[in-house]
Design brief:
This protein is mainly alpha-helical and about 210 residues long. It has nine helices and no strands.
């Protein structure tokens, strides 16, 4: 039988090294991300035939795997890589339980992080617009509400046009972010399953 030529113990040791830490460590996740990069890039290029889309997907995938992934809900390598800006993720960490569906879930996790960053960016932009509008009002340039409306439309119009014109690239960004996130979540799931199987095997041996 073919199974007689397979070293099951060796396979166990390899899988334990990859996934049993008892969960995949930050270093393991980084390795998975880096090893998966040429696969993601090559596959995207093969199916789209567009090197620009492949590069955008690859960059988004790498960013997601290293800095924008599910483990932003804990004090992780991903969290630490934000440097001085990591405090922006403190509310995110406080709101979510580790490995929650809202951080590690398919689609939900990535969309949630995008909305979270958009909310922070929108809040910062709102304060900036308010400050600029008040300054324009007191300098006699125009009323604060007209100044705010002018600035808001000046920002939204080109952004909306860009989304309409380059929607494929924006879709590529999202796909790359989601792929990087899922590489993390899937490895966690495999690690958990392997851990449970090892625990069950040890339990059966002790009987």
């Amino acid at each position: 039988m073919m199974w007689h030529f397979i070293d099951v113990d060796f396979i166990d040791r390899v899988l334990i090294h990859l996934f049993y830490c008892p969960m995949p460590s930050g270093r393991t996740h980084d390795s998975i991300t880096l090893w998966g990069l040429p696969v993601v890039t090559g596959t995207t290029w093969f199916y789209t035939g567009n090197p620009t889309v492949a590069i955008v997907v690859a960059g988004s995938y790498l960013f997601s795997g290293l800095m924008f992934g599910p483990d932003l809900d804990i004090y992780s390598h991903q969290y630490q890589r934000w440097g001085w800006f990591r405090w922006l993720w403190l509310p995110y960490r406080k709101m979510l339980r580790h490995r929650s569906v809202f951080s590690h879930g398919f689609l939900v996790g990535t969309i949630g992080r995008i909305l979270y960053v958009a909310m922070i960016g929108g809040t910062a932009a709102g304060f900036g617009i308010l400050g600029w509008s008040i300054a324009s009002h007191y300098q006699g340039v125009m009323s604060w509400d007209r100044a705010a409306f002018s600035l808001i439309t000046g920002l939204i119009a080109p952004l909306w046009k860009n989304l309409q014109t380059h929607w494929i690239l924006w879709l590529a960004v999202w796909f790359g972010l989601e792929t990087g996130s899922m590489s993390h979540s899937i490895s966690d799931t495999i690690g958990s399953a392997w851990k449970r199987s090892q625990r069950k095997r040890r339990s059966n041996r002790d009987r």
